Amino acid sequence: MKLIPKSIRGKVFLFIGGIAVISGLATGFYTYKEEIERAKKSSYEKIRLTLSFSKATRSYVRETLRPKIYELMNKYGGCIREDFILEAQSSSFVTANIFRKVSEDFQGLRLRQVAFRPLNPANSPTPVEASIINYFKKSKAEEYSEIVSINNYRYLVSAFPVKVKASCLHCHGKKEAMPQAVRAIYKPQYDPNWKVGEIQGGIFIYEPYEATLLQARLDGLIKGGVVFGINIIVMLVILFILERYVFRPIEVLKEHADKISKGEVDDKIPLKREDEIGELAKAFERMRISIKKVMDILK
């Protein structure tokens, strides 16, 4: 069984059709992959923005807000009973609560601030988070980004390490040195004993990658299918033009050539065009007329 047809029409149709299908599939696949990469990039940018927000918020609380409140507390000590205002002086507390509001506009995006030996047990690291914090300790890396499977669901996780500063020891050193307000809220059972300069925890951002990837694949399939469909339509238009303006006129000339070869020279060749096929038709017509005159003389 021969796959390549004998006729020029068949060969042209096979060639153009093959190119259209292959290029359509290739372009569609490229579009599909680009859509997935675009979704990944968008997720990374969203996470990096969140990490930057977290760093900036924590820095502002530590360097500006906390010192200012201490200054006011010392100045108006008789009017302020609290020795530590968690809602304004804890960088972790402020960051978490601001992000809780921000995350309402970014469904599924989650921020966790965790550490070994935290005051709040809810801020203890999960096994995955603990392994990443230990990675920070060993590698001295400044950032971590990876796709992690948690409970059979994939997340795009980005994190940066949190190094202990001297100001952290005010609440995370010895129990007896903690502000009374902090002891009253968390009721610590042990001394955290954090050390200045050590990596004690990390800030983690979770993006539900499974949903992002599924949506990207759906968008990629739609766009890739559209591109493939456009290629097929272009192919069909080209084949239609070739059929109408090249192959069908050649068939007409062939039919009249067969008639002339049998002595049927009365029918005029109907093609009237100004292109190459039209010139060929005129040549056939002149040949038909010449043969007809010879045949009329011989009668």
In short:
With 299 residues, the protein is of the alpha+beta class. The chain has helices spanning 8-75, 86-89, 91-102, 127-139, 169-172, 180-186, 209-261, 276-298, and strands spanning 110-115, 144-150, 153-163, 199-207.
Terminal CA distance reads 50 Å
Give the SSE order as H and E letters: HHHEHEEHHEHH
Average pLDDT taken over every residue: 83
Tell me the β content: 5-15%
Low-confidence stretches: none
Main β-sheet, spatial strand arrangement: 1-4-3-2
In one word, what is the shape? rod-shaped
Describe this structure in words.
The structure is a single chain. 62% of the residues lie in helices and 11% in strands. It is built from eight helices and four strands, in the order αααβαββααβαα. It has helices at residues 8-75, 86-89, 91-102, 127-139, 169-172, 180-186, 209-261, 276-298, and strands at residues 110-115, 144-150, 153-163, 199-207. It has a four-stranded antiparallel β-sheet with strand order 1-4-3-2, with helices on both faces. α1 packs across α3 (91-102), α1 packs antiparallel against α7 (209-261) and α7 (209-261) packs parallel to α8. The protein starts with 7 loop residues before the first helix and ends with a helix.
